[in-house]
Amino acid sequence: MRNLLAMARRIIRQIVRDKRTLALLIIAPLLILTLVWYIFGAKTSEPNLAIIHYESSDYLSAFKASDYTRMSPLQARQSLADKEIDAYVDLKDPIKVHLEGSDPSRNGLAMNKIQKSMQKMQQLSITSMKNQFTDVIKAQQKGIQTQQQIIRQMSEAMQHYAPGALAQIMQNAPKAEQPNQAKAAEKVKLNVTYLHGNDDLNTFDAFGPAMVGIFVFLFIFMIGGVSFLRERTTGTLDRLMASPIKSYQIIWGYMFGFGLFVIVQSFILTCYIVYVLKIYNIGHLLDVLIIVFILSFSALSLSILLSTFASNELQMFQFIPLVIVPQVFLSGLFPIDTLPSWVQAIGNLMPIHYSTEALRNIMIRGTGFSGWWLDGLILLLFSVIFIVINILVIRRARPIAD
Amino acid sequence: MSYPIKGEHLHKRFKNQIVLDDVSLTLQEGEIYGLIGPSGAGKTTLVRILLGLEKADSGRVELFEQRPTLNAFRSLGYMAQSDALYNELSAYQNLEFFASIQGMHGKEKRQRIDEVAKAVELDQDLKKNVSNFSGGMKRRLSLAAALVHRPRLYLLDEPTVGLDPMIRRKLWTLFHYLKGKGATIIVTTHVMDEVAQCDRVGLLSEGKIIAEGAPKALTEHYGVPSVEDIFITIEKEGAKK
Ligand SMILES: Nc1ncnc2c1ncn2[C@@H]1O[C@H](COP(=O)(O)OP(=O)(O)O)[C@@H](O)[C@H]1O
Ligand SMILES: [Mg+2]
C-alpha cells in the first residue's frame, strides 16, 4: 500500500509541476467543447425568402410579409443569383419554388419554411371551398322550402277534392330522412408532444453526451499513454522493476495518481457543460460525473496498454486514428442501426459507445440509476480487463517470482 | 564465502544476432568486478539478465544464492545506462520517490537522502528541477538513486560515462568506500584507466567472456602493458587459428 501511495504521489507531483500537461488535461477539453457548442448549438438563422406574382393570388395571406419579401420576377431571379435570398415562390398557378441550391442545409431550411406556408395555403383553400358549399346548400334549402310550401298547398287542395287518393299517396311515399348535421371541419394542425427533451433541444444538446465522452477519452488517452510510455523509454520503469515494488502496485499507482486529476477534470468539465454551456440536462450531476469518471479510467488503462506497443511518442499518437476516430463515428453521434452487423459489433467494443448511451439516458431521458448502471458496469469491466492485462504485461517482463 | 550474484551458461539472442554466448560469471562478496568490452559487446544485456529485467534464452541466474525474488531487490542498487530520472520532478523528489518504493520512510529517509546527495556532491542542487541538470549532474543523481536504500549489491552500467575526470575520481573513491563497508559492486565500463581500480575484471567480446582475473595478473599472463592490449592479442590469436 505504501508503494502504491508513493507511486500515486509521484505521478501527482509530476503532473502538478508540468503545467503544460495540466493545461492539456483540464483546459483543452473545455476550450474544444466550447467551440463545438458554438458550432452545433448556435440557433439556425432564418432562410431569406421571396414571392413573385402575388398580386392576383388568393393565398397571399399564407405568405406573411415579414417572412417573404415581395418582389418582381426579375428582381427575384437577380437576388437568387446574388445569394441574397435562398429561394422564391412563384404564386402563379401552378405554384413553383425556385431554390438557390448550393447549400443543402439552407435548402432544407427554405423548404421547411415554404412547406409550412403551403399548409396554411391548403387551409385557406379548404375554408374557401367550405364557404362555397355552404352557399350552395343554403340555396338548395331555400328551393326545398318553396317546394314544400307548394306541396302543402297541393295536398290541402287534394284533401278537399280527393281524400282517398291522398291517403294512398301518403302511405306509399318513402320517409324523408333528416340529414345529419355536417361535422365541423377538422383542424389540420398537428399537436406534437415530446416523450423526452423538448422543442428547444438543439444539436449540441443531442451531441453533447457523445462529445463529452470523446474529448475526455482523447485527452486522458494522450496524456496517460505518453506518461507511461516515457516511463518505459527513459528507463524509470526498469528501475521500478529492479525494485521490490509489485507489478500491480505500479499499475494501480498510475490509476490512483491519474485518478485524482481525472476526478478534478471530470468535475470541472461536467460543471462547465451543465452550468456554463447549459447543455440540456434533467438528470443528476452526480450521475453524469460518475459516468465521465468511469470512462476516464477505461481511457487511462487502455492508453497504458497501448503504450506497450509504441516505442516513442509519435507512435503513441499514431494510435489515435485507430482508437479514437472509430469511436467518434460509432459512439452514437450518428445512427448506427442501419450499419452491417459486424460494424455494430465493433461499436459494442468501444467504451465511448457506452458512455454516450449512459449520458443520453441521464441527461436527456432523465432516467436515474436504472438507466445507466449497465453501461457503467460495462465501462468498469473494460477498465478491469485492461488493468489486468497491464499487470500481466509488466509481470511477464519481470522473470522474477512476484 | 558467499556469492551475491551468479550467472551460469547464459545465452541470449535478439532475432538472429547472438548477444551472449554461454556466459558464466560469479561475483565474490566484497569485490569490485569490472565488466569491460567495446560498445555492443553485450555488457548492458548481461547486467539486465543478471537483474531479471531481461530473460535469458537459457541459463540460470542466482541472486544471493537463490532464485531472484522481489525481496532480493531490497539489497540491490541498479544504475541503468540511461539516467532513468523523472525530469518534471526536483532532484529531491526523485530521490524521495526511489527511497519510498524501496520501503524507506520518515526521518530515516530524509537523512539518507541528504547523505547520498552529499556523497555525489549534489546537496546544493536538491531543490532544482532535474530538467535543468547537466548531463553529469543527472548521472550523479542517477547513481544517488541507486545508493539511497543502502544495498549490499550494486550493478552500475557505465556509471562514469560523460563525467569529468575530477568527479570520476571522486566516484571511484565512493565505490571503494562502499566496498569497504562490505558491498559488492559490478561496474561496466569501456574506460580503460578505470580497469586498474577493479579487483577483478571480465573481458566481454562478441558475447563471450574471453578473459577474467585481477587486472595485474591478466596483463602479466598475456605479457602486455595494459588490459586494452589483451583484446588485441586475443583477436590476433583467433586470426592465427
Ligand atoms: N532490445 C534489443 N533488441 C535487439 N537488439 C538488442 C537489444 N538490446 C541490445 N541489442 C543488441 O545487442 C548487442 C549488445 O548490446 P548491449 O548489451 O547494449 O551492448 P553494450 O552495453 O556492451 O554496449 C548490440 O548489438 C545491440 O544492438
Ligand atoms: Mg551498454
TrEMBL record, chain A:
<feature type="transmembrane region" description="Helical">
    <location>
        <begin position="250"/>
        <end position="276"/>
    </location>
</feature>
<dbReference type="Pfam" id="PF12698">
    <property type="entry name" value="ABC2_membrane_3"/>
</dbReference>
<comment type="similarity">
    <text>Belongs to the ABC-2 integral membrane protein family.</text>
</comment>
<keyword id="KW-1133">Transmembrane helix</keyword>
<dbReference type="InterPro" id="IPR047817">
    <property type="entry name" value="ABC2_TM_bact-type"/>
</dbReference>
<feature type="domain" description="ABC transmembrane type-2">
    <location>
        <begin position="170"/>
        <end position="397"/>
    </location>
</feature>
<feature type="transmembrane region" description="Helical">
    <location>
        <begin position="206"/>
        <end position="229"/>
    </location>
</feature>
<feature type="transmembrane region" description="Helical">
    <location>
        <begin position="316"/>
        <end position="336"/>
    </location>
</feature>
<feature type="transmembrane region" description="Helical">
    <location>
        <begin position="288"/>
        <end position="309"/>
    </location>
</feature>
<keyword id="KW-0472">Membrane</keyword>
<keyword id="KW-0813">Transport</keyword>
<protein>
    <submittedName>
        <fullName>ABC transporter permease</fullName>
    </submittedName>
</protein>
<feature type="transmembrane region" description="Helical">
    <location>
        <begin position="21"/>
        <end position="40"/>
    </location>
</feature>
<dbReference type="InterPro" id="IPR013525">
    <property type="entry name" value="ABC2_TM"/>
</dbReference>
<dbReference type="InterPro" id="IPR051449">
    <property type="entry name" value="ABC-2_transporter_component"/>
</dbReference>
<feature type="transmembrane region" description="Helical">
    <location>
        <begin position="372"/>
        <end position="394"/>
    </location>
</feature>
<keyword id="KW-1003">Cell membrane</keyword>
<keyword id="KW-0812">Transmembrane</keyword>
From TrEMBL, chain B:
<dbReference type="InterPro" id="IPR017871">
    <property type="entry name" value="ABC_transporter-like_CS"/>
</dbReference>
<keyword id="KW-0067">ATP-binding</keyword>
<dbReference type="InterPro" id="IPR003593">
    <property type="entry name" value="AAA+_ATPase"/>
</dbReference>
<keyword id="KW-0547">Nucleotide-binding</keyword>
<feature type="domain" description="ABC transporter">
    <location>
        <begin position="5"/>
        <end position="231"/>
    </location>
</feature>
<dbReference type="Pfam" id="PF00005">
    <property type="entry name" value="ABC_tran"/>
</dbReference>
<dbReference type="GO" id="GO:0005524">
    <property type="term" value="F:ATP binding"/>
</dbReference>
<dbReference type="InterPro" id="IPR003439">
    <property type="entry name" value="ABC_transporter-like_ATP-bd"/>
</dbReference>
<protein>
    <submittedName>
        <fullName>ABC transporter ATP-binding protein</fullName>
    </submittedName>
</protein>
<dbReference type="InterPro" id="IPR027417">
    <property type="entry name" value="P-loop_NTPase"/>
</dbReference>
